[in-house]
Amino acid sequence: MSRFHLISLYTFCIVAVFLAAMAYWSRTPEVPSVESTFQEQPLVLYPSSGSRDSIRLFDLPKEMSFAGEKVPLEEPDVLERLEREIYVNAYWESNMILLMKRSGKYFPQIEAILEKAGIPDDFKYLALAESGLMNVVSPAGARGFWQFMESTAKEYGLEVTKDVDERYHFEKSTQAATQYLKKAHAKFGDWTAVAASYNMGQSGFSRRQEEQLHSSYYDLYLNEETSRYLFRILAFKVIFENPGEFGFHLKEKDYYRNPELKTVRVDEDIKDLAAWAKAQGSSYKQLKLYNPWLRDRNLNVRRGRAYDIQLPK
């Protein structure tokens, strides 16, 4: 083939490719219809989490009592206040589950101490309302399961020093609480007033009774916290006594339990609690976990005094 023919063929190929490209890019694009678009990519409706569907109304008790004393549920505001606390606590599921699980560690002993002291069993729910069964500290400085202020703790025989704070001693603080409750009952004459006064103080509650010419808690106009306080206790009682009605289905194995503990009596100073705990076959962590009333790294024991320290067997 001659040079001329090769050049002509090469030119023809370039022109053909150029015309084909022009034809492709100048074509009218095919736009799919709305109908075909949805057929190719159907709308998927994902199911909701179900939380909205799970919300339901609860059947309230037709009648109830606190410490053997009737709660006047026939009064509209009393029923509404109880209902408020039931819904607030029943639908705060995480907190309620933890309260229930934690009660396995402490309720049996609280019940035994209350019974021995002649205090109604319902006051175990007061400890729930006060602290959630934890050694918490309030903004005002009240401490422990029963939220004693330092002056009140000392008044009822609890030791509060740099080394030792028995407001954190579960058994001793519970016993001190029973003394306080019995004294309040001698003053007010009914357990409902005793529970309310635990929140606002005996003097404050007495003043409200005198000012408003009524003695019943349910007839008094009180501050927001005390107005809700007893109803929180009542809500705990309703939910704890009827857990399945509120969607809580804990089995026996679900409750927390303390391990079997041994008691070691100490009547001499301990200069290093960590070393002492290790010598007992335990650890500083376990020492503090089961004896939170020990507040320092050492323990000074006054003459004639002894302490019982609990450690896992």
Task: Describe the 3D structure.
With 313 residues, the protein is mostly helical. The protein has helices at 3-25, 34-40, 51-54, 76-90, 93-117, 124-131, 150-155, 170-188, 191-200, 202-212, 224-241, 273-279, 284-290, and strands at 65-66, 69-70, 261-266, 307-312. The strands form two sheets. A two-stranded antiparallel sheet has the order 1-2. Strand 1 and strand 2 (69-70) form a beta hairpin. InterPro entries: Lysozyme-like_dom_sf, Transglycosylase_SLT_dom_1. The chain crosses the membrane at residues 7-25. Pfam families: SLT. Belongs to the transglycosylase Slt family.
Summarize the structure.
Helices cover 51% and strands 5% of the residues. By secondary structure, the chain is mostly helical. The protein folds into 2 domains: 56-254, Orthogonal Bundle (Lysozyme); 261-312.
